[in-house]
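Q: What changes when protoporphyrin IX containing FE is included in the input?
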Amino acid sequence: MTETQGSSPSRRSLIGWGGAGLALGAAAAGGAVAMTRTGDDVDPAAAEAGAAVGFHGSVQAGIATPVQDRLHFAAFDVTTTDRAEFVQLLKDWTEAARRMTAGKAVGEGAYGGLAEAPPDDTGEALGLKPSRLTLTVGFGPSLFKKLDLADRRPDALVDLPTFAGDALDAARSNGDLCVQACADDPQVAVHAIRNLARIGMGKVVIRWSQLGFGKTSSTTPDAQTPRNLMGFKDGTRNIAGTETDRLKKFVWVGEKDGPDWMVGGSYLVARRIRMHIETWDRTSLQEQEDIFGRDKGEGAPVGKAKERDEPFLKAMKPDAHVRLAHPDSNHGATILRRGYSFTDGTDGLGRLEAGLFFLAYQRDVREGFVRVQRNLASDALNEYIQHVGSAVFAVPPGVRDKDDWWGRTLFSEEA
Ligand code: HEM
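A: The predicted holo structure follows.
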């Protein structure tokens, strides 16, 4: 470790030192080698408010990392069919991500460079802390077709089937690739996506994006479980970032899973789920609790006293969400949830355009999301929600060191 997260120079201090050249110099001198995150470790610095999360590691940050407060998620379409050009973009993105997650400005910074040229960085994150920013990249099924890589597409990256009740909007679905930006400061997350989109101009274009707040899943069991917009604790029985064995079993692609380039990666399912908030708010407390199979105050499963008590599924209504989503009802299927609430104004009919931007990571989409979502066809919650956007991505392994780049194992010859 050549640079601890806590001691990373902030965006402001680097620029303040006289800019750009110096900032790059600092990175080249070892500053770019952030705390290495190996395998499934949770970066202890990540618990610290405002700290940086290590960018390098065998897995990408932003999956098992303790969930940050804010999200900016973007799905991109690739506009070039030139593979070399796309690979160069991934390298440029990696370098920018390495800097931004460490709290540094992109390239030569936001000012101090050539007066005749637009600055490399857009500037709105100057003076802000790294805010535990993580940037996680994923490749959608359509990318493999577009870049003539069909033989490298993982079997586990299935096109999602149509599920009962789906009302998917094509303009909010799919995408050749995605970047999930999570941070404790929304401006830091938005700055990151904006700057990556800017670097990608002419090669990729944003297809859709989603802002999220109020994380609805916890990957840190000791922390207080957050609540979703229906007012219930969400993420109680999630995989924790510290549960190495369960992460290995259910989240990370293993050596025997295939293809080789995905070892250490994972698969991401994103679903924009609209909540019919106004209807929900007119529903009795008893019915609300029956729908989830947990009580609203403590979050305890039916018949139990405490949130962390083991659910007794048979005590719940047959169509209770927790009963149907539980691994025991799904041949053991277990996913890591990392979703966020959203409110995108109103829908023109006086109703909040709000809901859950559901994000789930798993080792195999067929054994994870597809299995659970199929079982949720009879979920009592369906009366109050509607899936309106959907996408699936292969999330490659982590960037190992300063010479490595996002997607190298997919695109380089020796992979
Ligand atoms: C707006 C939609 C949804 C809401 C409001 C919601 C809410 C909740 C709540 C409150 C819990 C109980 C606390 C917990 O253990 O986390 C829960 C559990 C769970 N949900 Fe959802 N959920 C939604 C959609 C989904 C979807 C689409 C899936 C997967 C296909 C899913 C999978 C799960 C799983 C696996 C559990 C844990 C079950 C257990 O092991 O006890 N949820 N959800």
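Observations recorded in class: The two ends are 27 Å apart (CA to CA).
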